[in-house]
Structures are given as C-alpha cells and as structure tokens.
Amino acid sequence: MATREATIRARDVRVDLLEIGRMIEPGSRVLDIGCGDGDLLYHLVHDRRVDARGMELSREGVNACVARGLSVVQGDADRDLIDYPTGAFDYAILSQTLQAMRDTRAGLEQMLRIGKRAIVSFPNFGYWRVRMQLLFKGRMPDTATLAHPWYNTPNIHLCTIRDFIALCEDLGITIERFLAIDAGGKRSRTVHSTRRANLMAEQALFLLAFNGERDESGAPLYR
Amino acid sequence: MNSISLPHPNYVEARRQHGQDNDPRGSVLRLEAVPFRLVSGTELPEVTVAYQAYGTLNADKSNAVLVCHALTGDQHVANPHPITGKEGWWASAVGPGKIIDTNRFYVICANVLGGCLGTTGPKEINPATNREWGIDFPVITIGDMVRLQAAFLDQLGIADLFCVIGGSMGGMQVLDWAARYPERVFSAIPVATTARHSAQNIAFHEVGRQAIMADPEWRGGAYYGGPGPKAGLSVARMAAHITYLSEAGLHQKFGRKLQDRDALTFGFDADFQIESYLRHQGSTFVDRFDANSYLYITRAMDYFDLAADYGGLLANAFKDTQARFCVASFTSDWLYPTAESRAIVHALNAVAAPVSFVEFETDKGHDAFLLDVPEFYDVLRGFIGAAAEKRGL
C-alpha cells in the first residue's frame, strides 16, 4: 500500500483527492460532479478500482476526460442531476464545486437522492486568513482556494464550515465524517472539531448520508 | 456475380486480385442464411451485401470496426468513390494512422439493405420476376439493416465488434446494434443521431418522397431503363440538404451573394449562390443515388423508434448492453439536436452503462459529423484509444 501511495504522490494527486479516494470502497459506483480534467476520476478508476464516471460543464474538461479513457457526460449540475435515477450511485462527489452551483441546496438534495452517500469538499470562507483580509484590508479574500477576483469568480455561493453544517442540519442530512484540510492542502491532523476547523481549515471535506424518511421511489424527504 | 466469403486483408490488394477496379460495388457477398426474414414478416429469397474492408483482421478477430453509413452514404468510406471520383465520405477519419486507424483495426463498411450500390434493394433484380424490384421491394427498417449486417459478419466469421460507429442514420444503426446484440459490441459511438425520428424529420422526408413520386418519370417506381425521376430526386436532395446545414453556416458561406453576375436578373435563374449550390447538390446526387432507394431508406428512418421496440422505455433497450458509449452532438445540428442525444445518454445512465457525451460547438450543422471538427476528432481519438487499450489491441 505504501508503494502505491508513493506512486500516486509521484503523479501529483492532490491530497484532498487522495482523502476522497480513501473514503470510497473499491468496486463502488461513483459520480463525480464537476469533474474538471478528471484528476479525481482517474485516481478513483486506476488507483482505487472504483466504477467512477463524471459530469462536467466545460467542453474542454469533458474532452480531456474522454481522451484519458474516462466516462464523462457533458452537463450542468444545476440542471442535469435530476435526470439520474434515484440510488444510481454509491457515492455522489462534489469536489470544490459546491460554491459554484446556482442552487446549492437543491444540488445537495439531488446528490443524496442519486447517491447513497455524498462527498463534498469546498473552500472554507471562515478560514482565519479570509477573515483577516476582510477585517484588515477591507478587500475580498485572495487565497489559494479563492484565487479569482470578485468580479469574475465562478464561486457565487461561498460559505463557512459552520454554514454548511447548518444547511445539512436543516435538510436532515447526517455528517458521517469530517476532515479539515490545511493551507498546505494536507489533511490537518490537529483539527478535529468543526468549530475549530471553521477558523483553522482552508478547505473542508464531508462524508454525508441521509437517514431520514424517503418517498416511495426511495428519494429522501428533506426537511 | 462475385461471391467472396472471406474478408480482404487490404482494400487495394483486393481490388487488384479480383480485378474489380471498375466495379462500383467493391466486394460483394452473397448471404448464405436465406431466406432473410424482415421485421415486417416478408422474406427476401436472395440477399447480397456490397462492402469495403480496410486493414487486417487480427488472429482472435477482436479488432473489427463496423462503420455505419448515413442515408445518402455508401460503403466507400475511405477510398475514392468509383462513381463520383471524390474521396471516401469519411476518408478524413478512416485510414492508416487516422482516428479509425486501419493499421490497427479491421474496418468494414457495408452498403445498407435497401441501398443502391450493390446491397439488395429496389434497383436489384427480384428473382421472382427477373426484373428490378421497384416498389415491390418490401418496406425495411433500421433493425433489418442491422440484422443483415450481423448475418453478414457471421458469414465473415466475425463474432463481435470492437466498435460500431456511425453518424445520423448510421448512429441509429449503432444504437440498434447495442440494443439488439448487447454481447457483440465492445464500444459504440452514435454521432449526431436520435433514438426516435421526430415528426419534423418525418415531415422533411415526406417532402422528399412526394417530390420523387410527383415526377412523371417515376412511373410508379418502374423507371429502370428510362430516364428516371431525376427532377424529383434532385428536389428531394435539395430540401434534405438544407436540413444538413445551419442558418449561421449558410449565412457565412453564401449570404445573399449572387452567382456569376452583378445584378438580379428578375427571372428564375439561380441568381443567388445558394440556389446554384443546391442545384449542384441535387444534380450530382441523381448520378449516384437511386430514387426508389431514397424512398425506402427514408421510410426506414421514419419508422425508427428504438424505445417503442422495448416497451416504450428507451432504457430497456440498453439494459443488457456491455458496450462503452461515446455519444456526440453538434450545437448547430437542428436535424438531430443535442436534446435527442441527451435522451440517449439518460437512458444509458439509467442502466449504468459507461457513457461519455460531448456536444461540440460548430456552425456546420448536421453535416459536422462528416467533417474534421478538431475537438470532435480529438475526443474520438481519445475514446477509441482508451477502448482499444481496454480491449488489449
């Protein structure tokens, strides 16, 4: 296992993608929403033996994925998730895409309809550097994960870790696991509480499930 | 009639061996599994299939690619056309070192059932009467075309296909292949196509058919030996050709530019370049295509409704498929718009088939599937390469 991880690192898989990979059992069916150039998909398919496919808005991203032998459908998460059958996947993943969705709440609901579990990662707007930039400079934050100027950023729905947890509570979604990712892109070994992570983590990674009531089709009845 | 039961290792060599340089049909196979029973229940007592093959079939016969041609296409996919002299209709994609690499794959393209370049169709001889079938030829379906291709491949000893690829009507055949022979297709590439012919498309086809049948030279389909319904077929082609292009493409290429003149003639000559272009399309088409074939093949396309064959739910058609799919559409294709490709993708998703889908940005309209749209070719190359790797080719 150690050698495999070494080869993965040598190929420069982002640490947050490795962490997502660790959450998923080999053989699972996975949909990666907003899969970009397919880095996570490639890792899941080739290193983790996962039956993974993707959805991506940009034609360039889809082209890159198909050329890498990945199964990717060009589509808009805000519009097309509804077309996937209920329970079609073991996991629906939204890696660094939550903040770019138009209807974040509906997107999250759809993820836990089509996937038995959902994995979501996003940049934490409660991160202390972000707070400092607003507090002291009075300017919108410019960090590694929030690198776009305010006027042309794809990130239209930014939130803090606490905001996201509150949304999950509102919907009746259970948080099964939580990881804080620090400024170096590494999993933080010191931050375990979400309250502390809200200040210290640059990114957050959640494993979510819906354990509440479902309708006759198996779709969750969100609160 | 030549009957060749083994695939040729190489197209050019085959031509030389069999001295067929002047036979527009290319290679011809007489089907042994006759009579051939059609979906309609009618039986064809004799069937021939005219085809072209490129490349070499490998020892375990795992590298065969079936290219399915569109309504007005034929088997001459990658060699100069014997009648028009123009290069093959997909010579940009099929050949040594090209996207469908004939150094690597054994590529077959057969003239469809009902066609007019050697495969049994209305202009071939009806053995019962010893005259051309004309409109006594039974109505055929896309499913019949595919079943004939399968019987033809059986006779060549090719059990399964590495890839089935085609655009437009060829794409319908690809979908039918995946549904009908789920274990025989390793990868499937339906391009610029639909799982169900729309009312609009049926309407355009009806215009074409009525133009042919309104031509006094059509003579109830029994025009062989005479001039034939050239005017009607030409009009059918002109009307259809407009649907293959796009408003933006037409505007960019022709606009309101005049043809070989500086002013309007105030008559009905081809004043505008677009008129001249369409007339040219129509007149060259009648030299290579049979009007009755046009009637039968458009009818087969109109009847195509894959979901209807599987209980009304398209996903059911694909529930046993083992193929990996690459579905492609083009932004300016209003004949088979992207929504129709998406419906195919949804059905494939519903049965968890590995499917990729890309819509390509182009102003070339439906015809884009025949052209070298660089992004399209990049994706095809990537998909085929990855599938070949998976297949161990």
Q: Key terms for this structure?
A:
heterodimer; A: 223 residues; alpha/beta; 7-stranded mixed β-sheet; 7 strands; B: 393 residues; 8-stranded mixed β-sheet; two-stranded antiparallel ribbon; 14% strand
Q: Can you describe what's shown?
A:
The complex is a heterodimer of chains A (223) and B (393). Chain A has nine helices and seven strands, in the order ααβαβαβαβαβααβαβ. Chain A is α/β, with parallel strands linked by helices and 223 residues long. A seven-stranded mixed beta sheet of chain A has the order 3-2-1-4-5-7-6, with helices on both faces. In chain A, strand 2, helix 4 (59-67) and strand 3 (72-74) form a beta-alpha-beta unit. Chain A is globular, with a radius of gyration of 17 Å. By secondary structure, chain B is α/β, with parallel strands linked by helices. Helices cover 35% and strands 14% of the residues of chain B. Chain B is built from eleven helices and 14 strands. In chain B, helix 10 (338-350) links the parallel strand 13 and strand 14. In chain B, helix 2 (142-156) crosses helix 3 and helix 4 runs antiparallel to helix 8. In chain B, 50% of the residues are buried. Mean pLDDT of chain B is 93; it is low at 1-19. The A-B interface holds A 29, 53, 59, 62-63, 65-75, 83-85, 88 and B 324, 326, 342, 345-346, 349-350, 352, 354-361, 375, 378-379, 381-383, 385-387, 389-390.
